[in-house]
Write a structure and sequence with these properties.
Layout: H1 2-9, H2 24-31, H3 35-41, E1 50-55, E2 58-62, H4 64-72, E3 78-79, H5 106-113, H6 118-128, H7 139-158, E4 167-171, E5 179-184, E6 191-197, H8 214-231, H9 235-238, E7 245-251, H10 259-270, E8 275-281, H11 288-292, E9 299-302, H12 308-321, E10 326-329, H13 338-343, E11 348-352, H14 375-393, H15 397-401, H16 405-408
Parallel strand pairs: 6-7, 6-8, 8-11, 9-10
Antiparallel strand pairs: 1-2, 1-3, 4-5, 5-7, 9-11
Helix pairs in contact: 6-8, 8-14, 12-14
Length: 409
Amino acid sequence: MKATLLSSLLLPAAASARFIETHEATQANRILPYVDALLEEAPASSTDKFLVELSPGETRYVTEDEKWELRRAGQRFMDITEHEDLGTLRASSRSAAVFPKNVKLQDELKPLLANLSKTGMQEHLEKLTSFHTRYYKSDYGRQSSEWLLQTVRNTIKEAGADKYGVKAEHFKHSWGQHSIIATIPGKSKSTVVIGAHQDSINLWLPSILPAPGADDDGSGTVTILEAFRVLLSSEDVIKGNAPNTLEFHWYSAEEGGLLGSQAIFSEYEKTDRDVKAMLQQDMTGFVQKTVDAGKPESVGVITDYVDTGLTSFIKKVIEEYCDIPWVETKCGYACSDHASASKAGYPAAFVIESTFEDSDDHIHSTEDLIKYLSFDHMLQHAKMTLSLVYELGFTNFKELEAPTEIGEL
């Protein structure tokens, strides 16, 4: 078994922007330092079966090893073993989401945007990537989640927002790493959610090999943390004057099949939570392939399996508040945690660092490192995140959703 497992690790991976791209010799060099640990510590392959959804309605049972084989082959999926019923409760009551026609809070946002900092993002990302891995079943994954929760709580306390009921808590899971939810109460329980995933993975041997995960999704994790920090400098926000509640989520186990976000949105669906919008930030820092191709640096706006109204509004936010344009791109089914919100019946969207084909090809390996990333580009994503959550946080959705006189005739 050990020989078979080791030989499988040395096979070259197929090339894609969403899974490992490398040559056989390079991959072998990365793995050889860990061979001794592998031979001594690698557990027997599990025979447990997991139900994965490869596309809407297309499911199959696979083992844990087969899950990673699918990922190495570039196949995304949702592991729906524990949440096969996600989306069924809201299926009959879903209505078309409505969003503002234009942005309008430029005066309020201008001073906030000026306070966004690359320094904090870099410091946080250096710490986040210092963990051997953030694999959701590992103790390192647990440790990184504990550090992240404490960092979010420190951010709240430093802003004095804890006095007004702003809080951050673990959303607990059966595996070692818990998701994190930070809540800024508003005048209503209608909620705007900003998300990123905190876990990382090395698809060659998740439990043993390093997975710094700088871009995937350390970049998204620190991007939304920086937006959260600056958002808390608004007295109107921390004192609960926004019409809507604002939440920032850092999901566990995205790499295992969107497990953390499925658990959260399953609970939200069952408790009839009113989520007005959800934006996922997954990979926000890599621009080299875009630049090398002679293309303009842009924010990649995903257009498949997303809410079209929310996506259109995000484009307007980028046009107004960012210094770079947007570019449309597609990523397929279940390519990040927005898919969990969408399946639960909530309007969800996803932005990424570039077009999908120009996104980071170092991910899911030992080479997903800070040195390949641009904090200037991450700052643009932070601007977009802060602007979107502020604009939607102060949106009167009841007024938007109210039928017009013509509509009532």
